[in-house]
Specification:
single chain, 429 residues, mainly beta, four-stranded antiparallel beta sheet, 4 helices, 31 strands, 41% strand, globular
């Protein structure tokens, strides 16, 4: 008689996948061997499983609809208006990664934007409202009723929450409506108290009204705003990039006409933004650009405001925005394949005919969902495909631009996080 030994972690994944009705053989046993859900197969491909979590489905069997990856937190949203926060790193309250920190029900379901994850609150635009949920506790801090559904996600940045409202502009709301308008903002206070943020400490604190304010968007907004520097940035459907930043002189507005509409959500690294223009089906030439926001406190004289550091022509219209890992920017060229460029100079590093949807980049891999619905790994340095894995029912796409983890999810509620396998340190000579 032959016995098969199954590790407890593999058994846990199998039970969760089986409970959601996914990846099952005819006999009812979960099929995870040889798939990304198999921890040994995943590790051989360059991924180490960090945690696995089953999201409560709620009343009526609502399904998981979207997952957002943030700094130390993963937020999963179900179709019944459920918002579920998962611990993603040990820095968040000391809880083990994969811990379900809290679940919160918002409204009665209906369309909802992706969650915005900030250091103090998690924000969700849903129905005709914006709700701010206290990040540590999961209690609803406040809710703002609107006249219509926001056009994209509500995004926290510093001590403010921003949301694009169609035909109105960008709505700005305070993260904490009850703080004193004349006192230092909580973001500044936290930076100064921790000894970080010397720039913030040198900037004067000026009083600001905490009343909701609608800011002219300069045209219809495309995609959700993104945190940039000490403020926020967004793009218009006409291709203008707009940035607001708090400086010594107060709030400064900078605009940079790109000429073409963006093809997807831009990616921010520090004070630099990477963006693709020329969406699929458009008549505009396609480009990839690096755009820098000048640091007003820099000792040398920076280029003023927003400036294009480099801009390169693409061989086809990009399928969405780019991904950034280290000094490499990767972009999907739709049916023409995938390409990578130097984040510093814009020089082409490689281009391959491999077609896939980018989902994450980190370590020495860029991860894509290919045309057959499998998870493929391309070598970040050469573009050569290094691995191809079955998803085992983890078919809900999760695009991670926040860090180097690969997060996969199933509509039935399973969420799994993987990290790049750490390379062993070179032996001392």
């Amino acid at each position: 008689m032959m016995f098969r030994i199954t590790s407890p972690r593999r058994l846990l994944v199998g039970v969760l996948l089986s409970a959601t009705g996914l990846a099952s053989a005819a006999g009812g046993e979960p099929v995870i061997c040889g798939s990304v859900a198999d921890e040994f197969t995943a590790r051989a491909a360059g991924l180490e499983r960090q945690w696995v979590r089953q999201i409560p489905s709620g009343v009526g069997g609502w399904r998981l609809e979207q997952v957002t990856v943030g700094d130390g937190l993963v937020v999963a949203q179900t179709g019944d208006g459920g918002v579920h926060a998962i611990q993603a790193s040990r820095e968040e309250g000391g809880m083990p990664p994969g811990t379900l920190l809290w679940s919160r029900q918002l409204g009665g379901g209906g369309p909802a934007g992706a969650a915005g994850i900030g250091p103090q609150v998690v924000t969700v635009a849903h129905d005709l409202s914006i709700s701010a949920i206290d990040r540590p506790t999961g209690t609803v801090a406040w809710e703002k009723r609107l006249g219509e559904l926001p056009g994209a996600a509500a995004v926290p940045s510093g001590d403010w929450v921003y949301a694009a409202v169609p035909n109105q502009g960008v709505l700005r709301l305070p993260v904490n409506p009850r703080r004193s308008a004349a006192s230092p903002t909580s973001a500044d206070a936290a930076k100064q108290a921790s000894g970080r943020g010397k720039q913030a400490a040198t900037q004067p604190i000026f009083a600001e009204s905490l009343d909701p304010r609608t800011i002219s968007d300069g045209g219809d907004t495309a995609f959700a705003p993104v945190a940039l520097g000490d403020g926020i940035a967004w793009s218009t459907t006409a291709g203008t990039l707009v940035a607001l930043e708090r400086t010594k002189q107060g709030w400064l507005r900078r605009e940079l006409p790109l000429g073409d509409p963006l093809a997807g959500q831009p990616v921010v690294r520090g004070r630099t933004l990477f963006a693709t223009t020329g969406p699929v089906g458009s008549a505009w030439p396609a480009t990839l650009a690096r755009i820098d926001l000048a640091d007003p406190l820099a000792k040398d004289k920076p280029r003023p405001g927003l400036a294009i550091a480099w801009r390169v022509a693409l061989t086809d219209h990009p399928d969405g925005g780019p991904l950034v890992a280290g000094d490499t920017v990767v972009v999907s060229l739709g049916p023409s394949g995938t390409a990578a460029y130097s984040a510093t100079t814009g020089d082409l590093r490689w281009q391959t005919e491999f077609v896939g949807r980018l989902v994450a980049a980190g370590g020495d891999r860029v991860w894509c969902i290919d045309e057959t619905g499998r998870l493929s790994a391309l070598d970040l340095a050469s573009g050569i495909r290094r691995a191809r894995l079955c998803l085992a029912g983890l078919s809900l796409p999760v695009v991670n631009t926040a860090n180097d983890t690969v997060v996969l999810a199933a509509p039935g509620g399973v969420v799994i996080s993987f990290a790049p396998v750490a390379k062993p340190a070179p032996a001392a000579r």
